[in-house]
Specification:
Elements lengths: L5 E2 L5 E2 L24 H10 L25 H10 L3
Antiparallel strand pairs: 1-2
């Protein structure tokens, strides 16, 4: 069995993970793709937090990298809070 890899628009090797396809718009911070940035998304944000500096952000956590600088840190959290609607 072979696995094909390709590059996404951010020049990172794509190992096959993509957000599920829906007719809803992509909203930064909306991990569960329900168009609302809420407590469910906050729970996932805490699991995705890294330290400042270039880290490898997993593909599913890139929705929280608001800057984007390849990490999920407190600067991203400030942007996340601006989107938050409990």
């Amino acid at each position: 069995m072979t696995r094909s890899t390709r590059f996404d628009h951010i020049s990172v090797i794509d190992l096959g993970y993509h957000y599920r396809i829906t007719d809803r718009p992509l909203v930064m911070g909306d991990f569960d793709r329900n168009t609302a940035v809420d407590l469910a998304d906050f729970t996932n944000w805490t699991a995705c937090m890294t330290m400042p500096g270039p880290n490898d952000v997993s593909p599913c956590c890139r929705i929280f990298d608001f800057e984007p600088d390849n990490d999920v840190d407190l600067e991203d959290f400030a942007a996340f809070l601006l989107q938050f609607s409990p």
